[in-house]
Amino acid sequence: xxxxxxPQAQAQAQMSLTPVPGQRASxxxxxxxxxxxxxxxxxxxxxxxxxxxxxxxxxxxxDMERKIEIVKFARSTRQSFVRLLALVKWxxxxxxxxxxxxxxxxxxxxxxxxxxxxxxxxHIARENLVHARLPNFSLPxxxxxxxxxxxxxxxxCIKEKIVPPDPISQNEKANVLQRLNQIIQHRLVTxxxxxxxxxxxxxxxxxxxxxxxxxxxxxxxxxDDPGIPWRLLNIEILVSDPDTxxxxxxxxxxxxxxxxxxxxxxxFGDENTLKDMYNCLHSFCQSLQLEVLHSQAQRLIRxxxxxxxxxxxxxxxxxxxxxxxxxxxxxIGKPEIYSLSIGIDTNDTAKPLQINHEPxxxxxxxxxxxxxxxxDRLSIERLLVETILMRSKVKLKELQILLEKELTNVxxxxxxxxxxxxxxxxxxxxxxxYLTITIDMQTGTYQPYIAHADSFLxxxxxxxxxxxxxxxxxxxxxxxxxxxxxxxxxxxxxxxxTCSEKLPLVSISEEHPLAKLSQNRLxxxxxxxxxxxxxxxxxxxxxxxxxxxxYYLFHTKKAPFYDQAxxxxxPSQTEGETGNTFLEPLSLVPLDAKSCTHGPDTVIEAxxxxxxxxxxxxxxxxxxxKQRMSRYCEYFQRELAHIIALCDRRIPFIxxxxxxxxxxxxxxxxxxxxxxxxxxxxxxxxxATSSISEETRTxxxxxLLECSFRLLGRNHLHWQxxxxxxxxxxxxxxxxxxxxxxxxxxxxxLTSPIVKQLLHDWKAVGLLYQPVLELAxxxxxxxxxxxxxxxxxxxxxxxxxxxxxxxxxxxxTIVGDSRExxxxxxxxxxxxxxASNSHMLVxxxxxxxxxxxxxxxxxxxxxxxxxxxxxxxxKLPITPALGLxxxxxxxxxxxxxxxxxxxxxxxxxxxxxxxxxLCKGKNTVxxxxxxxxxxxxxxxxxxxxxxxxxxxxxxxxxxxMFVDExxxxxxxxxxxxxxxxxxxxxxxxxxxxxMSQHHSVPSPMARLGGATSGGFAxxxxxxxAISTSNPATPASPHTSMLSxxxxxxxxxxxxxxxxxxxxxxxxxxxxxxxxxxxxxPALAAGSPSNIHHHAPSPGSFVPTPSPNxxxxxxxxxxxxSPQSISDNANSPYPNMGLAMPxxxxxxxxxxxxxxxxxxxxxxxxxxxxGMAATHSPGSSxxxxxxGSFQSAGPMTSRPARxxxxxxxxxxxxTVLSCEAINKLFSPAPPPGVVGGPAAHMCSPMERFLGSVxxxxxxxxxxxxxxxxxxxxxxxxxxxxxxxxxxLQYWVALNPNTMxxxxxxxxxxxxxxxxxxxxxxxxxxxxxDTKVVCPPYKPNAIQAFTRALSAPIRMMKDLVQLxxxxxxxxxxxxxTLQWCLTIPPNxxxxxxxxxxxxxxxxxxxxxxxxxxxxxxxxxPGQDPQTVIIPxxxxxxxxxxxxxxxxxxxxxxATSSIATVSNMLKRWNELCQNKxxxxxxxxxxxxxxxxxxxx
Length: 1493
Fold this sequence. Notes:
This protein is α+β, with helices and mostly antiparallel strands. The protein contains 34 helices and 40 strands. β11 and β12 (446-449) form a beta hairpin. α2 (36-57) packs antiparallel against α3, α10 (363-370) packs antiparallel against α11 and α29 crosses α31. The chain starts with 6 loop residues before the first helix and ends in a 5-residue tail after the last helix. Mean pLDDT is 76; it is low at 1-30, 563-579, 612-632, 941-946 and 972-1204.
């Protein structure tokens, strides 16, 4: 596009022949051009001009015409700017065109030059050279030049008129100048020179005369004739004004020329020409100096000094007089006039300016002042300042003489410039506290200053010095009092006290000691002690430089009023005092400073330093800091500091003694400890504690050797009470507690009731001492088993720290609280422990139980027995996580641990299953299904707030796999023990065996509540066949006596039960006392024949056949066969006449139990009968402990028992060893997996519960998907059977391990040809390894179930995707992972992370994750991954990426776009529309997708 040129631009381009800066005159092609900026300016100006014309013409036209003109203007302007825009866009890319145009233009110019040259040569040859002729050649000139190389025929006149002559040489110049210097020296020697011109120099034939601060003159001679006059070459005036002249010359050049001519005319004289020259220049320079000083004085008065300086007289060229200190002339007593005169000496005009002072100065002083004008810098201000400084020094000397005459003991001194008079007011004081007096430079008055004085006092002192000198001594006394008070305030600045000069006191009488004190006093309030003050009184002494100081201890109390009319002091609003509080004086005690500072516990530092000077340096006890303080801190009041410190230490002991007297405690009084290190008060004895036994009270009183009080601290005082004990009952392992005597230190606040607190702590010592005495008898006996498990780490009489366990890495600290009469337990770990204390789970329960029985032996036995159990339970994951519940966005717990007591734990799995765990002691633990009622196993625990618990299927079978030989002798091995519904049973089954053999250390259940407080009700065992009676197993009560004796709930303690009658000869007792896990009543806690347990057990009320014995129970028929039970008889024993009716509606008919609802709450505390007092009052608070994985040791497990499928089988407690529990709850690889990626660390219990939970959730999902997947009733117990259109599925637990859930797939009869065995195997393996695997996500099961409901064609492709995930193809670029749930980093934002990621309707949505393989990545860099949402259109058979841009909050990335384009291209190229395209499209992505890193 060609440039747009306006007419003005065209005219300018045509007229301009030279290039304009910034504008190119012509383009390379020769055409005229214009710069873009200038073109833009022209266009803007044109638009503005047209707009201006429109604004002037439009008002005259009609509305329609105006609109037309505006449209025309807008259209033309728009077109112009559109063209300009196009030009600008073209110009941005016109650089190459411009270069080409320049090259073309250059070539055209070269071609034009060649053509022009040829034309010109042709023109010259044809026209100009036709008539051309050459002149005659100059042969002589050519011969000369060619032969000689010169041309000598040039006329000489040219050389003479043009070429200058040669200059003289440097040697000739030097000779001439040296001769001229000699001539000048001769003339000066023979002439008379003034003495002022003695400063001269002769250089290069010139002589220079220099007079400082006046002038410089340069002269020379024009020959050696004596009659030749001096020639003046140059004059320079040296007078300058640096202050007001601004560096400019003071004499005009015309004046210099005039003086030059005048002096030259004088030099033509006959005699004394040089003297005349000096007189003339000297007179002129002095007049100029006076003029400069006058101008400076005017400016000084105008700008700085003002009326304080005045020009009295000024005569130009003669005299200048200045008056200063003009206010001194107005003094009434002695008026003085001070002036300064500068002028020319009339007697000898050759002298410099003279200075006169009024009044006269001494010769030495005047000489020092006159030096100011003789310097290189001419300044009237400097002269004035030097004069005033000298006058100030003279005036201060006069004042010094007067002061030393009146104050004989005061030594003053004058120092510095300007002069300052220093006078010490009081001794000792620092140099900064001297009274300093200076002279005001402008007024000449005295100006006093002293540190710490207010402005009012300084103004009065100044007036006194200048007008009323006689009152000076009164003000000096005031200053002494002021400095003394300031010294006192500064001396106690770091002490805990505050100062005030007045107190808000109530009215006092004139006879009061406080009224007789001097008015110059200081009140020092002791902050640590309310209502106590130290009063410092100041009085004059004979020595004028010192004051007499007295000290008093002032005790006050708060007063409710203030009587101002009675003559009391006015209250002062000082710091630390409030105007609304008044004080009433109580006592004023004088303090002797000497006795206070020379007591047994106080030493004056100065005296100490004096004594230490005689000692060696190594034995000095005074620190360097104290030595510096005594040397430099002159004002420090050591006596006052000692007195305040003494009061601070003594006053608390006064209050302590009063409190001890009130409590009737005998004491020995306040004593000074050795070497004066402090004060101590010792008690004679402490009262006996009533809350402990007499034996313990006597033992602890005999162990106490001493009780002493000390006051410690500097800034914060507190009491320290030392209790010294001997004969400690236990030995601790700490090195500091190994001596024969032990100290216990108690700390109390100063303001607290110390004696009451001491008595409370003494009571706590007695409370803890009693259990310690009991513990000492056990741990000090090496024969006791507990002594090897427990050791005392620390015993401070306030708290006891015990280490327990096999490795002794766990500690428990018992601290007594005397106010609440209970103990607190603190748990911790020491040494090489890798996890926290496992008993933190039952911390509240342990504390509650210990406060109930207060036996350290029972506590430690309980903790040692339950340590392994709690360590195993603490390994369970309890941290909330996402994806563990169907609500993916809500965090859920995997396990919830709810302690019921210190040995009774409930473990909830995902709010569904519950494990009831009870520690039995002796390395045994019982586990039951906590979902069953404690008294009726057919009744599931009901809840009111959250969902109820669900019985755990196959729990009994799973637990039997972990029973080892260590507990096999306590159990009854019977394959049919679960054939009958169990009776109400508690967790204390099997405890009788342990208790029957070990009576010295009771079981945990017996330690909790005694003989009658078992964990739950005991089992009921029916009478058996006739046999010989076993003395160790008494017969069960006869059924004929039940109607008269059994009228209370099972397991209740304290109800009567008659002795059983004699057993007939045809009845054989049950052998369950030896091996049956459901204990026989002979050894149960409630058996009437058990001498150790006095609570009857109803365990004999339920008929249960003995194992492996062919006999018939009397109640076998009606109990097992539900059809034999009549409608009006709900009890299995309708003819026994039980007073307690059987419940109506139960899950298992004819099972005897307690009527009414279950006493156990959901997730709450299960209070068993007889055990209500032993449970923790607060069963909430989940212990959050982390247990590190420890590989379980080798355990010999007996073969799993194949029990019949009974839902209530797990309600019967299973006895396990602690090693089995540790193996059950410790993370371990899956069964059969040694290591590697498949070895997911998970506990066997978590795998079992997760598998059961997954199976239950799968059943729930199948019920919701009844249209596509239908459940088939199965005769096999524990097997879930369902089918789809073409396949049948069986889901069941692995019977060998019970820790994994397996899927078995078989085709339907009509679909056998559609499915291969390999495809079904892939489906089974994928279900086992990817769906029902930790952490057992329910949404993953739901997603997999949806996939099973897909059509066969799509299902086959999904199976192929599963194969690719299970067996990755390394020939592809990417590996596949099928996301059953939406991953956290899903870019689509379709749903929250963890939601089921498969949706099948008209279209199917799945998520896959591709991971790049075969690429060498640098260390630390993760492989490339991409998450792809895939949409398969079932009707159109197309597979594309889900278009979720509306849902996505972030813009689409390049990888998403690349995948989408590849899938679209693949769908376009794919010709096979018969087979499903899911697998083919995804495999194409895995083979060909390339995403840049």
